[in-house]
Amino acid sequence: MDHKVIAKQYLITGIIWAIVGALFSVFFRLQLGFPEDTFPVMEKFLGHWAKGGKLTPEFYYALVTMHGTILVFFVLTAGLSGTFSNFLIPLQIGARDMASPFMNMLSYWFFFISSIIMFASLFVQTGPAAGGWTTYPPLSALKEASIGSGVGMDLWLIAMALFVVSQLLAGLNYITTILNMRVKGMKMTRMPLTIWALFFTAVLGVLSFPVLLSGFVLLIFDRHAGTSFYLSEIFIGGKALPHIGGSAILYQHLFWFLGHPEVYIVMLPGMGMASEILSTHSRKPIFGYLAMIISLTGITVLAFVVWAHHMFVTGMSPFLGGIFVLLTLLIAIPSAIKVFNWLTTIWRGNLKFTVPMMFALGFVSLFISGGLTGIFLGNSALDIHLHDTYFVIAHFHLVMGVSAFFGMFAGIYHWFPKMFGRFMNNTLGYIHFFVTLAGAYLIFWPMHYEGFAGMPRRYYDYSAWESFKQFGTLNAFISVVVIVVFFTQLLFVFNFFVSIFKGRKVTSLNPWGSTTLEWTTAIHPGHGNWEGDIPEVHRWPYDFKDDGNGNDFVPQTVPLKPGEEAH
Amino acid sequence: MSGLIITALVVLVFIVIYQIAKASELATILRGDEKKVKGQTNRLMAWLMVAFFVLGMIGIYKCHVELMDKMLPESASVQGDNYDSMLFVTLVMTGIVFFVTQILLFYFIFRYQSTENRKAFFYSHNNKLEILWTTVPALALVVLVVIGLKNWFTMTDIAPKDSLVVEIVGKQFNWIIRYPGPDGVFGKRDYRLTNDATNVLGLDWNDPASKDDIIIENGEMHIIDKRNVQLVINSRDVIHDVGLPHFRMKMDAVPGITTTMWFTPKFTTEEMKAKTKNPNFVYEISCDQMCGKGHYSMRGTVIVQTAAEFKEWIGKQPAYYAGQQKAAAPAPAAEGAAPAADTTKAAPATVASTH
């Protein structure tokens, strides 16, 4: 029940899922890059779904769907905030454990069961869900519409329902712990930005996941109870269905009411960790601490009122569309504030290029590149042509895929010494960093062009299209880069697991020269985190200044000197 | 077996890399010059980041040169011209922000790398700066929102009265096109009357307006150059999406809900062939909403013709009713059953006469 153990469970489950999800992307990239060729190795993994080494279209769509589901939910939600909320919240606010350790444990085991069911769905006769990770009905509601909408879809829905339960248990726990269990002196305005970010992540999850669950329940009813929430006037499989009066668009509203906040659930932990890491390794306070909190608040509030920008081309009222354009583009402002504050944080710093620092810097670069294209897609008129093209793929992979991953990697490299009492190997870390950064840009940058050319996403093969077939060589190039990047991630996984047992040992309490509380615990903190009393907090978390003894930082536990002004 | 060997090889390579990396790190610590090596690594990383930046910029340029001639030709609709100019403005504005911020990021990385004598400058906040970079992006966004909404409301406005009206219906996995025929009125549809043999769109034969409707089942839509066209969009089964990249247009086809869009084509298909110097050029309709295993093959085409050519073409198309009468003549029973079914209830969402 120890929060540190649960955090590691989340992390390792997340890593396993990430390998599965990434492997799927390699499989479907092989198809996209080399539609003419066969790859017998795929038959080994996928059996009859890739007879003779050629993916079937049905399974291509299943892979795409599972890639999205796994990475968005199981890795970047559970694996990311599950790991770091559990690990950092008690350690950084000075608590011995979560408010309810038991609920915390339940949350992991619900996630685990959900994982098992989702994984099992890969092996059913008709294959896993194949309607895209958004599983829009009627496609996902009718087994006549797609082979993946059979048992695979049921398992998908059950797994996701359990996943929501897990997220709610976890989220309530995080919020309660942060609000109630801070150590003496740890005012809200003295919390590290990681905690602020994880706090808002939990708030977003708690308020939006229930809506998703309601959407799923209605979908289950439509599938099995003969209701018509999402179905109306459908002729399929040679017969007309009796459903009348439902709206397929209703599901999209319910889905995106979570789906959009979900983007920030994925993003915020990375933002928080990047802030913390940039500051620590620049030996300089985060610039605009208060502005960072305000912009996080702004993002959280706005996240709830922009969901319909995913639906500009569903035929929604143009007036409503206009409102959503306005609200959506407002989010660019707090995001811009954060970027400028990060830049000012490293300005005139004393930058130590440790591996976590490299990833935090990469995070900023990718967040800028991916974030700016959001301004295109959030503007409804521009979204019309770009909607559901490769431009969208490039946008969200850069901003919430790769950059969230960079936040996660930065966090793993930075807190690995606290988790396991050892360091990860630096050389491998640097290789991992450069290959991944370059790979991310090589893969996703050219996709913007494909999107401008109108190339639709989720196509199995483009060679029959006069308008899109000219990108054949480019697709092959991208696929090759994907394979290289995939093996580099395996190198990271290898580094991670080997370093747990063989890594260089941590010999000092505070290897990074950090100001926050987790580094006041023993190298291998036991259950309860601090052996004696929890140290009292006297100052804000970013006092990177001369302490008078030759150190360039003052930990939060050091009382203010006479005459020293609190931040 | 070969899979096993490959896996073993990969793991082996990883182990070798790891051991080398670890050994070199331990060696520096043993030699006691950890600090010096750390300094060297720091400098190396700063230079590598600069190299990454320079190569990245070259890459961006190369990518641009390489891909520009593979992009879409000039917009083929009047609305698309507005679209393209808006896209250009947005590209320039975001492009400036992109280059400025990335240059600053990588410049700071190089300029402020840790050296022995460097001390970080304690600088925790500055409200003037925060206000500056709240208002400047806000103002830039106002510009984009104003342009965007202006275009959005024009594009989604009600189609002009004189538009040519064409219905396009998505089904797994092709497009069906319907013209109202000489009377200019679409006949009523009831999805329960649909059958793939004799009535693909479920037309209600009791409605006289349906008798002269023309249905094109191969997804080939003919429209008239420089004449506004309004598409009435429906779906028979799941959600599809009518994507017209050359016209910069797109709209979902949702079962049970009719959507519309309109635009003004600028060039005939023939003109476009000359413009692109591609004799195979064709306006394509792509399905842009995941609709099942054949999603990627759900291809339609648009033929833009002069008014005279269009008139000649449509004159040759038989009314769907007449065609089915002929085909169904040997088996009148099937045909007789269909109209009887619809008298039970009024069709809930027929395509009303679209004028």
Automatic annotation (TrEMBL), chain A:
Spans through the membrane: 12-32, 59-84, 105-124, 155-175, 195-221, 254-274, 286-307, 319-343, 355-378, 390-416, 428-447, 476-498
GO CC field: membrane
Compartment annotation: Membrane
InterPro entries: Cyt_c_oxase-like_su1_dom, Cyt_c_oxase-like_su1_sf, Cyt_C_Oxase_1, Cyt_c_Oxase_su1_BS
Residue intervals of the Cytochrome oxidase subunit I profile domain: 1-538
Pfam family, one: COX1
BP GO terms, sorted: aerobic respiration; electron transport coupled proton transport; respiratory electron transport chain
MF (Gene Ontology): cytochrome-c oxidase activity; heme binding
Family: Belongs to the heme-copper respiratory oxidase family.
Name of the protein in question: Cytochrome c oxidase subunit 1
Annotated organism of origin: Taibaiella chishuiensis
Lineage summary: Bacteria, Pseudomonadati, Bacteroidota, Chitinophagia, Chitinophagales
From TrEMBL, chain B:
Protein name per the record: Cytochrome c oxidase subunit 2
Function: Subunits I and II form the functional core of the enzyme complex. Electrons originating in cytochrome c are transferred via heme a and Cu(A) to the binuclear center formed by heme a3 and Cu(B).
Cofactor note: Binds a copper A center.
The enzyme's E.C. designation: 7.1.1.9
Transmembrane segment boundaries: 6-23, 44-61, 86-110, 131-153
Originating species: Taibaiella chishuiensis
GO molecular function: copper ion binding; cytochrome-c oxidase activity
Comp. bias (Low complexity): 333-349
Main subcellular location of this protein, as a coarse class: membrane
Cofactor(s) the protein needs: Cu cation
Enzyme's top EC category: translocase
Keywords: Copper, Electron transport, Membrane, Metal-binding, Respiratory chain, Translocase, Transmembrane, Transmembrane helix, Transport
Localization per record: Cell membrane; Membrane
GO biological process: ATP synthesis coupled electron transport
GO CC annotations, alphabetized: plasma membrane
Domain Cytochrome oxidase subunit II copper A binding: 161-316
